[in-house]
Amino acid sequence: MPTTVAPIPNRSPEDIIALRRKHLNPTLSMSYKQPLKMVRGAGAYLYDQDGNAYLDMVNNVCHVGHCHPAVVAAGQAQMAQLNTNTRYLHDNIVEYAKRLSATFPSELSVVFLTNSGTEANDLALRIAKTYTQANDIIVVDHAYHGNSPTMIELSPYKFDGKGGRGRPAHIQVAEIPDDYRGRFRKDDPEAGAHYAEDLQRAIAAIHARGEKPAAFYCESVLGCGGQVVLPKGYLPAAYSHARAAGAVCIADEVQVGFGRAGDYFWAFEAQGVVPDIVTMGKPIGNGHPMGAVVTRPEIAQAFITGMEYFNTFAGNPVSCAIGLAVLDVIQQEHLQAHAKQVGDFLMQGLNELKSRHGLIGDVRGTGLFIGVELVKDRTSLEPATAEANAVIEFLKAHHILLSTDGPYDNVLKLKPPMVFSMENAKEFLLQLDQAFTCLRG
């Protein structure tokens, strides 16, 4: 007799919460005061058990839209044919490496595949240490690079947060280049270079330990740091300081890559630099677990030490088929240009709201990666944390999903699926206006 798969019970949200508390990781949080049970996704929307549609403005994983039919079909077709590891020859993996590397500057041509952004950043660390024969790392304050033990050590967002153990000795933290509330502001045309000078302090601290820097990690747009767009000139100066000290420069594109930045396919391109290593995750597989590292040939060559890098699932034919489909959708549906167009419209609308609502202190972003920082006072910049969370709950009640981030949890972060439309943007701006009006009383 053919095997039958047992049906999954249709439980109430309350029953699911109870079972989560009994059987799941107890540190796993849930969104909103009253968590939502989602059963379906399509395009820019999620649907709950009662069929209610929610506009998803925070999921940058389902990059080309929830359950995009072309991506689903590619995965289904390959899954029905073959899935195995990379020690066998298969067209999909070389085709994907070829297509992915073609999106980068020519200097970056060697691809390593992983299962997540965390794995990509972890592997980048191994490669950097092997190439430089050094150990110490420079990161940017409030950065998050992944959930493995080594990535927690590289993430001030975690090691300086609740439950963290503080900065490890081999990690140096560079000042966050925030030109809204940092030391150097938007009116300083040299703010980027001034912030980059702090790497010299970090390098000196490494040398004082008798060590050398192996790598400088920096997100191309800062995510957990509060959707911070790097000031012009920051990466050129920072990379110069890092390379002069013998370190490699790693661009973390896990949140902002694959055309989301609008003007560029990769957000680091806005700074006019070519990193030594780039890491990817989240949007790469549209919800399928994938990640990747791309680097220069000479750095990849130095990683040949006799210890093989083999990953059972990374680069399997199904993952590569899905990854190829994502690249096809981005290109054929012109999603990078779409992100630019809709993102510019959102920025214009948000700045108009800023002119009428004093809670909005700053609007910043690129393409469909935008932050709205809320403050109680535009002079003191006192964070409006409670108000930001009230806005999130208001929007959820009006079927729009959003969340907050930043060191003070007061930045509304907008990073919707790339199919987010002009009509979606208009609806969001209308409801956000209402949220601020209600808060004002």
TrEMBL record:
GO MF annotations in UniProt: transaminase activity
CDD domains assigned: OAT_like
Protein name, as recorded: Aminotransferase class III-fold pyridoxal phosphate-dependent enzyme
SUPFAM superfamilies xref list: PLP-dependent transferases
Entry keyword set: Aminotransferase, Pyridoxal phosphate, Transferase
Pfam families hit by this protein: Aminotran_3 (PF00202)
Cofactor(s) it depends on: pyridoxal 5'-phosphate
Domain of life according to the entry: Bacteria
Oxidoreductase as UniProt keyword: no
Lineage of the organism: Bacteria, Pseudomonadati, Pseudomonadota, Betaproteobacteria, Burkholderiales
Native species: Undibacterium flavidum
Presence of the UniProt keyword Amino-acid biosynthesis in the record: no
